[in-house]
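Protocol step 4 of 6: structure prediction from sequence.
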Amino acid sequence: MSARPFIKMHGLGNDFVVVDARDQPFAPSEAAARAIADRRTGVGCDQLLILEPPSNGRADVFMRIRNHDGGEVGACGNGTRCVAALVMEETGRDRLTVETTAGLLQASAAGPARVTVDMGEARLGWRDIPLSEERDTLHLGLASGPLSDPVAVNMGNPHAVFLVEAVESLPLDRLGPALEHDPLFPERANIGAAAVIGPNRLRLRVWERGVGLTQACGSGACAAAVAAARRGITGRKVEVVLDGGALELEWREDGHVLMTGPVATAFTGTLPEALIP
């Protein structure tokens, strides 16, 4: 596998190595994806994003998502904004469709270096999350230390959102790994802790499956917005403040979640062959 150009991008500090494979295939193994994502010996990123030709005729690009641990996942909200911004700049258009393994996502320009993505419908059934057994997804009955009674939401990947009084002092780096791998989640889960900090304003931290603590998690912000609205502690339009900054969320009456936030390019480079075992 020859050396490949890449673009390093981020959305609120949630960072990505983006490789364009629309003309020349690029299918790294899990070990290779981990090597690229390694922050000490590789380029370093939360996710590796691979652009491929779309299989759906309604889409403009297919985005394949590989987590920091090399595994493939179906959704990445901040990454979708970054990829949409790249392709919109390339095509001169202000709206397009990104295909993922979780479905088609509509994206549109929302101002300088800002993009809105329709992240699709929030899925709330216990089989949709998925859970290993039937439970009320509004009250999962799961607890660990100071965290208890989360809300489950699938936003292209599974999320458990704990609604708490304050998030800053929570040892999410200690609690997150065990909760991510709880037997209730056969596909593991992203673990969020959200607190109301103002009218229709949430503070959120996320332990992301296969990644760990991140500066921002777009699908996690969507899940937190849905969870808070379902519990009746916010309306359906909220600002979600993550470690890296704020996202604007709207859970529409049709069940779709709109996410608006910034994108940025950090640098470009070439992946050396040594990173691709």
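Step 5 (inspection) to follow. The chain has a mean pLDDT of 95.
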